[in-house]
Amino acid sequence: MVLEFVHHCSYDCVFVYSLLVCSLFQALQSSTIYNITASRPLIQNQTLVSPCKIFELGFFGPNGSEKQYVGIWYKNTTFSKVVWVANRDKPLGHKDQSASLIIGGDGNLKLLDGRKNAIWSTNVMAKSNYSAAVLLDFGNLVLQDGNANKMWESFDEPTDTLLPNMKIGVNVKTGKKKYLISWKGEDDPSPGSFVLGVTSETPPQLFAWNGSSPYWRSGQWDKSKFNGIPTMSNKYLSGHQLVQNINQGTTYYFRNYYNNSFGYVSSHRKDL
User: Fold this and answer.
1) Spatial contact of 213 and 166, defined as CB atoms under 8 Å apart
2) Nearest-CA neighbor of 120 among 153, 89, 144?
3) Which residues form the Bulb-type lectin domain (predicted)?
4) Tens digit of pLDDT for each residue in 102-121?
């Protein structure tokens, strides 16, 4: 289902509803693991799955591409949208069957190619290699220390998809920004031209760019909806949240988890 407020905006942010229930999940296969540890890496033909098997993470090649990536997608659904990609800038060769996702000696989650070169890493200050990576039922990949404290999460590094409880926004004090950036093409998850973010003005609004050119804006947030989207009726209000803290310098937009839905930025210009 495409959300109606997007339908009338003529822009590239397409929101799709996908309802999921644990009772529909398939039986566990031998190629499935539930965490990545120093002694249990993720290798080719394996997937890391969330507890209720809603999401899974593994190696993939989009649309027959000769390049390989590590990503997260919905499990057991007909809509096989990849919602997050680790190495979108540094693909593996399709013939590299020895690549693996490991917990390194420094405690970081790392993607190694067949020659043991680090292609991607969480790159945090981990205290030991007793850390583990788990995939949560919200689609969040989390690196935990030995006491299950969160050290890193994929929700802090979104790609093109906004999952429930994932935030996009800006911290003007630190300069940190979280954007959704489209894929370059259907078989190329590297950063494309379209970017969706949140402005730091008061009141804030969603803003999309095509390269450096403004492409679309939602209108300012009136504490319940965006005033530039007249078709945004009450049926949307329970899911959309935009929180601005002037003292902390933060502005974030997110959707709550009560609806198992997601939004993504497409690389294709469409008049929806």
Assistant:
1) no
2) 89
3) 33-156
4) 999 999 999 999 999 999 99
* CA–CA gap between residue 109 and residue 243 (Å, rounded): 31
Strand partners, 84: 72
Q: What does the alpha-carbon distance between residue 174 and residue 249 come to, in Å, rounded to a whole number?
A: 8
Question: And the tokens for 164?
Answer: 């429930």
Contact 137, 22 (CB under 8 A): no
pTM of the model: 0.83
Q: Is the separation of the CB atoms in 93 and 111 below 8 Å?
A: no
pLDDT tens-place string over residues 203-254: 999 999 999 999 999 999 988 888 888 777 655 555 788 899 999 999 999 9
In sequence order, the β-bridge partners of residue 150 are 144
- d(CA 47, CA 112) in angstroms, rounded, equals 16
Q: How far apart are alpha carbons 181 and 191 in whole angstroms?
A: 6
Rounded-to-integer distance, Cα 65 and Cα 59, Å: 12
CA 224/CA 232 separation, integer angstroms:
10
Could you tell me the domains of the chain? 4-8+158-265 (no CATH), 34-154 (2.90.10.10)
